[in-house]
Design a protein that fits this description.
The chain is an alpha+beta fold. It folds into two domains: 9-81, Outer Surface Protein A, domain 3, CATH 3.90.930.12; 84-170, Ribosomal protein L6 (Outer Surface Protein A, domain 3, Alpha-Beta Complex). It is built from three helices and 13 strands; from the N terminus they run E-E-E-E-E-E-H-E-E-E-E-E-E-H-E-H. The protein has a four-stranded antiparallel sheet with strand order 11-12-7-13, covered by helices on one side. Strands 1-6-5 form a three-stranded antiparallel sheet. The protein has a three-stranded antiparallel sheet with strand order 2-3-4, with helices on one face. The protein is elongated.
């Protein structure tokens, strides 16, 4: 049996989950509402204060779906109760981030032009710039997949380079650094 799939999901206070007849799980909580279509080979059982996910057979495909949908439902429950947050750090001279109207993020990343990204309405972004510190972009959302996509898109505009570490990186990310030419010649 799937180690992840067999774990029960505890439903926190203020969160309610419903599974409709057409296999769509809907989770409502204080931070919003999320829904996910569920494969017919997987059955969601809600009893007491726990959610369990069961599969119909031991086929390889069904085992994969068992763990997948348990994780997706768990992410939805966590998202509507606590939410998710990702912090990005802009490392480099002159790198800036500013939130302008209509949920548009303006990034200055060392190019000859500004980079603009239109953010989805579900995503809340805060850009913080302190003197003598790297600018920090804080992204908050209740959908784990959406927040990951937005963070990856922002990071893709200027990935950190291995020599000086300049670029957009996650806060706390450890970069593999390389020695420059002078160190290699010795």
């Amino acid at each position: 049996m799937s180690r992840i799939g067999k774990l029960p999901i505890e439903i926190p206070a203020g969160v309610e989950i419903k599974v409709s007849d057409d296999n769509v799980a809907t989770v409502k909580g204080p931070l919003g509402e999320l829904s996910q279509k569920i494969d017919p080979c997987v059955k969601v059982v809600i009893e007491d204060n726990n959610i369990t996910v069961e599969r119909e057979s031991d086929q390889k495909q069904h085992k994969a779906m068992h763990g997948l949908y348990r994780s997706l439902i768990n992410n939805m429950v966590t998202g509507v109760s606590k939410g998710y947050e990702i912090k990005l750090e802009l490392v480099g001279i002159g790198y800036r981030a500013e939130l302008i109207e209509n949920n548009v993020l303006d990034l200055t990343l060392g190019y000859s032009h500004h980079t603009f990204i239109q953010l989805p309405p579900e995503v809340k972004v805060e850009a913080k710039s302190d003197k003598r510190a790297n600018p920090i972009i804080t992204i908050k959302c209740n959908d784990k997949q959406l927040i990951g996509q937005v963070a990856a898109k922002i990071r893709s505009f200027r990935k950190p380079e291995p020599y000086k570490g300049k670029g957009v990186k996650f806060v706390g990310e450890v970069l593999r650094r390389k020695a420059g030419k002078a160190a290699a010649a010795k």
